[in-house]
Amino acid sequence: MKKAFFLALCLSLALSCQRDRQAVVLAEGKWDANVRQALNTLLATQGKGSYAVFDFDQTSIVHDISQALWVYQVEHLRYADAPAHHFLDGIPTPESDMPGTSISYAAMGKVLAGEYQRLKARLDAGESLAYIHSSDDYLDFRARMVSLMDAMDEQFGSWVTYLWQPALLAGYTNAEAEALIRDAVAEHLGKEKLAIEQWNSPEDAWGGRVARGIWVSPEMKDLYRCLEAAGIDAYVCSASLECIVEVLACDPERGFGLPAERVFGLRFVPGEKIVPEFDPQYKQPNKEGKIDCINAYMAPSYGNAGPVLVAGDSNGDVPMLTEYPGMKQGLLIDVGRSPESAIGQLVTIAKKEGNKGIYLSQLSFER
User: Fold this and answer.
1) Contact, 105 vs 88, CB < 8 A?
2) What is the 8-class DSSP label of residue 98?
3) CA distance from start to end of the chain
4) Three-state DSSP state, 114
5) Domain 25-62+216-363 is of which CATH architecture?
């Protein structure tokens, strides 16, 4: 009798363990079949004492959360100190001409500040945003903002843009900035809100393409959930400002429900109000800095071992995707980067190996 009871108990526990293992399996979704199989193998073979590191924009989410905030601030005319600084915080040489133009960044900034003051005065006087948005002054303002951003990206590179966009929060308290970011996420979140728009000035003198909307796909939410269920701690390592990323990454309903201590992004110097200067005491996670960030703030909790999974979509993620010999899988979210780019070369390797090697190429879930 006791033996029969013991055998029944063992069978019950075995079935329970099997159910638990089966639960930590990615839903089919829109995953490439070989990518899903490789990730499921990782979930089954790794566990407590290991961790995964994700880029955020265009990897964990579709589109870019900093860009969504930027669009929201332009459309709602929500700035604190940026207009007083002529929207130039973070630009290294404001007296230099914007590429392909005869106008300097400083001159462009003065025009933007003047337009903003007129638009804000109309808003404060009771005009509706919808009416203001139809005016030539507003159409020129938003087109010039796009041209300014594109110019600095071309001339100085993404690192300057990563500073300039969140620098538009300058002057807000941390609580005010968080409320603003939450408003932006609420307005832009949803697959149906993803779009690419052309913002041109009335006479087509200025303008450019703008990505609208952000979206958390069911597939990425499921991957984060399965990692946690398998005992693999998920981290975010992003070149967006940390407080912007946290609003969505830490949200258990709309985002991934991560604890704040597992979200790492760019950090400004601490203070009561936001000052657009990077904190020199912190390992800023941009390009090679992502490796420094991982090694300083994540790896020590795991015996200084590297992550078992790294996920990214851009050249800025390549350093952390190629640094760790113990990495089991490198998940590449293919958003159509050039095959000649550093990330494009890794995607090519993954495709040649049929997604059966270390690198796994997965089409963006936007598609």
Assistant:
1) yes
2) P
3) 59
4) helix
5) 3-Layer(aba) Sandwich (3.40)
d(CA 2, CA 9): 10
Rounded Cα distance, 167 and 90, in Å: 7
Query: Which residues, at least 6 apart from 258, have a Cβ–Cβ distance to it below 8 Å?
Result: 224, 234, 235, 236, 249, 250
As a whole number, mean pLDDT of residues 282-300 equals 97
Do 40 and 26 contact (CB within 8 A), yes or no? yes
- The continuous run of DSSP H or E covering 305 comes out as none
Report how far residue 60's alpha carbon sits from residue 227's, in angstroms, rounded to the nearest whole number: 13
Q: How far is CA 65 from CA 105, 119, 182, 340, in A?
A: 25, 25, 11, 26
* Cα 225 from Cα 27, distance rounded (Å): 11
Please, are residues 241 and 275 in contact by the beta-carbon 8 Å criterion?
A: no
CB of 290 closer than 8 Å to CB of 316? yes
Question: How far apart, in whole angstroms, are the C-alpha atoms of residue 32 and residue 45?
Answer: 20
Question: Domain map of the chain by residue range?
Answer: 25-62+216-363, 66-212
43-85 residue pLDDT tens = 999 989 999 999 999 999 999 999 999 999 999 999 999 999 9
Could you tell me which of 332, 233, 240, 234 has the C-alpha nearest to residue 284? Answer: 240
Contact 96, 104 (CB under 8 A): yes
3-state secondary structure (DSSP) of residue 102: coil
316-358 per-position pLDDT tens digit: 999 999 999 999 999 999 999 999 999 999 999 999 999 999 9
C-alpha span between 235 and 251 (Å, rounded): 14
Task: Give the Cα separation of 308 and 298 in Å (integer).
Answer: 12
Phi, psi of 120 (to 5 degrees): -65, -35
DSSP string, 7-38: HHHHHHHHHHHHHHHHHSS---TT--HHHHHH
CB 113 within 8 A of CB 94: no
Four-point Cα dihedral 199, 200, 202, 203, nearest 10: 180
Separation of alpha carbons 216 and 254, rounded Å: 8
Check whether 9 has a pLDDT greater than 80: no
- CA 264 and chain centroid, separation: 11
Residue 40 predicted with pLDDT over 50: yes
DSSP state of 287: T
